[in-house]
Amino acid sequence: MPSFFNATPRPSFRDKARLSPLPSHTFHEKEYFAQNSSTTTFPSGWLTFILIPIPLTHRRLKIVLPISPRIWQLSTSRLGRKTASTLGCFLFMLCIFLTFAVGKRFGSSSKTWPQPFQGDPPSLVFDRQDLRKVWEWEIASGHYPSSEKIPQEIGFTSPPRNPSVPPRDSRIRLSSLQAPFLADYAVGYGPQRRYYDPLNETDSRHQAYPPRPLSGSVADLDVIMEHCNFSTSKYVRDCLEVLRVGGGLDNGKRTRRGSIDNWKYLYVEDTVNKTAPSRASPKPDLYRPHLNKNDDVVTIRQKTPLEPPLKLSPPRAPTSPTGDDPCDPDHPRIFHMFWAGPFTDKPYAALLSYLYTQNLGLHHPEGAPQPKNVCRPQFWVWVNPGPAAAVPNPTALREMFTTLRKNPWSSPFLHRRFKDVIKFKMWNTTEQLDGIPELKDEWRNLEDLFNSGGYKFNVKPVNNPATSVVSGSSASAPGPTKPASLEDDTATAPEAAPSTEKEVVEVEEEKEGTGLKELLGSKSEASYDRLSVILSDLARFVLLHRFGGIYLDADTMFLRDWEELWGWKGAFAYRWSRLPVYNTAVLKLNKGSALGSFLFRTALRNGMDLHPMTVAKYTKDAYLEPLLLRLPDALFDAAWLNTEWYQRERPPYPYFTAFKDFFESPSSDGAAPQALGFSGFFRGAFSYHYHNNWWEPFDPARNFPDLGPRFINGERAARAKAQQPLDLEEEEDVSQDRRDLSWATVLKRTLEAYVRGEIPNMYGEWLEW
Question: Where is the composition biased (Low complexity) (predicted)?
Answer without folding.
Answer: 467-484
